[in-house]
Every structure is written in C-alpha cells, then in structure tokens.
Amino acid sequence: MILCRVVGNSVSTVKHPCYEGKAVMVVQPVDVDGRTPLGAEFLAVDAVQAGPGDVVLASREGNTARQLLGTDADPFHAVIVGIVDAVDDGR
To answer: Which of 2, 31, 50, 79 could serve as 65's disulfide partner, Cβ 3.0–4.6 Å?
Structure first.
C-alpha cells in the first residue's frame, strides 16, 4: 500500500471499454504528514469515490486492482483502495 494524495482526475472522450464508468485519478505518493511528496505521480482507478485533495491508500499491483474491480481481463495496474481519515506514525 502507498499513502497518496489525490491531485487531480483524468478525463477522456475516447477510451478502452473497460474504463467505461470508472474514474481514473492522478495520485502523488506522500509522507505520513499527507503533504510532503515522495515520488512521481501515477494514475489509479478509483474504487472508493475519492476526490482531489483526499489522502488515500493506493495499491500499485495489478492483481489487487483486478480482484477489487472484479475482472481478470482488464489492464488495471493501480487502484485507490481507501480514503485515509488520520495517520498516527507513533511519534
């Protein structure tokens, strides 16, 4: 799992049929503070109705995406699996 902030969404007028009805968000890996960037942005299919500004948990592993979205044939690599309410890093 990767802690990320949703920084935007993608819009497409022409897309593969497997993306019909699915939101694809732009997410940025972040530190436990929820703000400090830790890596390059990537696209993730939204499975939890997240929105821009939300801190989320993302999985960047295709098998997890396929299991959550219910298909073996679709080309999903990353998926947003949860919206984070709070992070306690134990400090």
So the answer is: 79
